[in-house]
Amino acid sequence: MFDHIGFAVADFEKSKAFYLKALAPLGIGVVMEGEGWAMLGRNGKGQFWLGAYGKPPGSIHLAFATENRGQVDAFYDAAISAGGRDNGAPGIREQYHPNYYGAFVFDPDGHNVEAVCHQAET
After folding, report:
1. Residue 22 phi/psi, 5° resolution?
2. Residue partners of 20: CB distance under 8 A and separation at least 6
């Protein structure tokens, strides 16, 4: 549905470091960057922008799709290691559907960041 999403952050360097570490297990990295902003994505396609322009928005929720449950686990570990705060360890969320495997952390600005796999365990 979306081509890309972007938002302002309070501390660009801190947020950039957090997202680079947290999203590395999902194959997401910097595609383009400039003074006070970065566009992250996969395979050269920027889809996630963050920058130091403007006031950070109120709390938002971001969910990143994964290819497997192992990536959800790796995201969670990397995000916590990068300074994220726990908002739900990896596990099944049956209230969404029987194979919804997700993990949730709060980023440096308090945004709820999720990695989710919709595939059955292999």
Report:
1. -65, -35
2. 29, 30, 40
**pLDDT for 59-89, tens place per residue?**
999 999 999 999 999 999 999 999 999 999 9
State if pTM tops 0.90: yes
Strands (E), the chain: 5-8, 29-34, 37-42, 45-51, 61-65, 85-86, 91-92, 101-106, 112-117
3-state secondary structure of 36: coil
What's the rounded Cα separation, in Å, for the pair 71 and 25?
Answer: 6
Give CATH superfamily name and number for 5-52+59-117: 2,3-Dihydroxybiphenyl 1,2-Dioxygenase, domain 1 (3.10.180.10)
The first and second tokens of residue 50, run together, are 């963050």
Both structure tokens of 51: 């920058």
39-64 pLDDT tens trace:
999 999 999 999 998 899 999 999 99
